[in-house]
Fold this sequence. Notes:
8 helices, Rossmann fold, 25% strand, binds nicotinamide-adenine-dinucleotide, alpha/beta
Amino acid sequence: xxxxxxxxxxxxxxxxxxxxxxxxxxxxxxxxxxxxxxxxxxxxxxxxxxxxxxxxxxxxxxxxxxxxxxxxxxxxxxxxxxxxxxxxxxxxxxxxxxxxxxxxxxxxxxxxxxxxxxxxxxxxxxxxxxxxxxxxxxxxxxxxxxxxxxxxxxxxxxxxxxxxxxxxxxxxxxxxxxxxxxxxxxxxxxxxxxxxxxxxxxxxxxxxxxxxxxxxxxxxxxxxxxxxxxxxxxxxxxxxxxxxxxxxxxxxxxxxxxxxxxxxxxxxxxxxxxxx
Length: 276
Ligand SMILES: NC(=O)c1ccc[n+]([C@@H]2O[C@H](COP(=O)([O-])OP(=O)(O)OC[C@H]3O[C@@H](n4cnc5c(N)ncnc54)[C@H](O)[C@@H]3O)[C@@H](O)[C@H]2O)c1
């Protein structure tokens, strides 16, 4: 384990948890899987063996482990709330919470524009145009009013040139939201971005910008008479709870479609591995 790497604990070693753990292990420079937890000891052990992590059947042990910097929650839906609350109580700070706190401090002035991006590798066969809204942009529809403390009062939807990698789907899509405070938000959904998963949010305020960067760290730029001597610093925070992130880029168009999507995504990663 390298001293500077972000140590990630993965709760739930099923399909998605194992996928996330593999992705972190193989592709995420600067991050490593430290612990894998599953009530099924064999699943925990299998993911741990594959990623060089430690396996446990006790998710609480993982959540409270001081050596774990960030947590992926990929257990069954019904467990997400408890696990996320336990993680926050144990000191994890979802990046969006830091972003909201920074905005609420007033230091950066009023938020004027938000740019949100949600990109995935590939959509499931049979996915419809509507899914970009109901399955992907839905997260921004939740997050933005909460972040700004202001309800969405106006929405427009746009689709331009679509990717040629899929047929019958308008992808990418762009939505423009106006909240009651007058701020404008762009939401880009791109289910077939191909290159990987990418979720971002940048807020342009009266005095600068605040942005979540990979892996969901808060980076703030702010002009002023006394600029900091070093480049803009980022608050080190845990990645956002995966209750929402685990759904991003993935599609939920039925179990069969999900299985096909998983096979396709795995094939994509294998292809990428060979290309490297
Ligand atoms: N499979 C998909 O295509 C897909 C796509 C998007 C999102 N998701 C989401 O990902 C999450 C996991 O889905 P999945 O398909 O990997 O399910 P899965 O059944 O393959 O894996 C879930 C794992 O969680 C474990 N588990 C259950 N309760 C636990 C607990 N209290 N503590 C620790 N581990 C526990 C189970 O033993 C199992 O191994 C779900 O929230 C699901 O909605 C799945």
